[in-house]
Amino acid sequence: MILKYNKDRRDSNSFKFNILLIFSLVLILFGLLSDSPQNIIFGLKRIVLSRDTLITDYIKIGGIGASFVNSGLLTLIFTLLLYRLKIRFNGVSYAAIFTIAGFALFGKNIFNVWFVILGVWLYSRVQKERFAKYVYIALFGTTLAPAATELMFSNYLDWYIGIPLGIFIAITIGFILPPLSSHLLKMHNGFNLYNIGFTAGLIGMIFVSILRSYGYIGNTRFVISEGNNGLFSIFLYSLFIFLIIIGYIKNNKSFKNYKRILAFSGRLVTDYIFLEGIALTLINMGLTGVIATSYVLLVGGALSGPAIGGILTIVGFSAFGKHPKNIIPIFIGVFLGSLTKIWVINDPVIVLAALFGTSLAPIAGGYGIFYGIIAGFIHSSVVLNVVTLHGGLNLYNNGFSAGIVATFMVPIIDAFRKEEIK
């Protein structure tokens, strides 16, 4: 399909900015209403001083209030950063900001993200180019923020060694992200939406291997919350219905032309705001949010910090590649895996595999439902094994796994399709 410019000129940049601004303020308000100011302050302190490797659920560490305030503050700061850099808000803007919001519930916080960003900024200075050119790599690159706090706050090194070493490694990671991410995109040919996750997995694997050769023994974590499905269901459904209503009103009180979004494969780069406008994009974001939340509840999963992070990431990338037609096959593939494999479908790790596995949505969108189901089936196995390679330092572990799966599957699919043509 040829991607053509549609009607982005009719969509005010200030309107798109205001949507993200409101979203960040809603997160902060929800956090403030969920706990006392004193508990929120103490909770933020615990979050900042925590090791952040996978899986560290901030709701369990610092409480609901502190977690959502942390999420809202980061969302607000980075939204204002994009505005300050005079970025025109588009699909990747929404994907980046919603991903930040989601992962600020389990791994990214108001302290640990800045070292990677500084590294990317230094790279832009060395290249004598504007930071705006690399800002999205910086935002997505915060997936490796735990690299700093793992060395700072673990018991492996004395503080006077661990703190400077952690800062140095995180800045170095940020510095090498831009050239690597552009090169590795070619490996999966755009069929993994979380390309930075794939890049970060390889970087994390290299750094962890070097550290282990000096005796470092890093351990992944499994700190996860549960028991909040009622409260979070109300919050999430309200948020997503709000997005649908805003999109519906802005689209002249109709869902007209929404089917056009469903016709896209979602392969990188597919920017729905650029192609179809903000109104239809908001409708799409709300619908996928409702579907993702319902999936977690239907399989009996917990709406934990990581699960909400997965849902918000789906919603963000529903401005940049995802839609109901190409994410549902991934869910089906993971579900079918539960019927034959050794895990159950509502295992927290498998719930995350389904949610974040929608990084492979372009396979379903580009090659069809059958291949999408196969991709989800394979991904649910691969993702459980790759985390040991990077020691949990890459928060986008599913992006790393999806990159491997896409790199493995796409050439094979293409080969068979060629044989069929012959």
Structure explained in plain terms:
The chain has 422 residues and is mainly alpha-helical. Helix 2 (37-48) crosses helix 4 (64-84) and helix 6 (114-126) packs antiparallel against helix 7. The protein has a domain at 11-212. Helices cover 70% and strands 0% of the residues.
Secondary-structure blueprint of this entry?
Elements: H1 13-34, H2 37-48, H3 58-62, H4 64-84, H5 91-103, H6 114-126, H7 135-141, H8 146-153, H9 159-188, H10 195-212, H11 229-250, H12 259-262, H13 272-276, H14 278-298, H15 305-317, H16 324-340, H17 348-356, H18 361-367, H19 369-390, H20 397-421
Helix pairs in contact: 1-4, 2-4, 4-5, 5-15, 6-7, 6-9, 8-9, 9-10, 10-20, 11-14, 14-15, 15-17, 16-17, 16-18, 16-19, 17-19, 18-19, 19-20
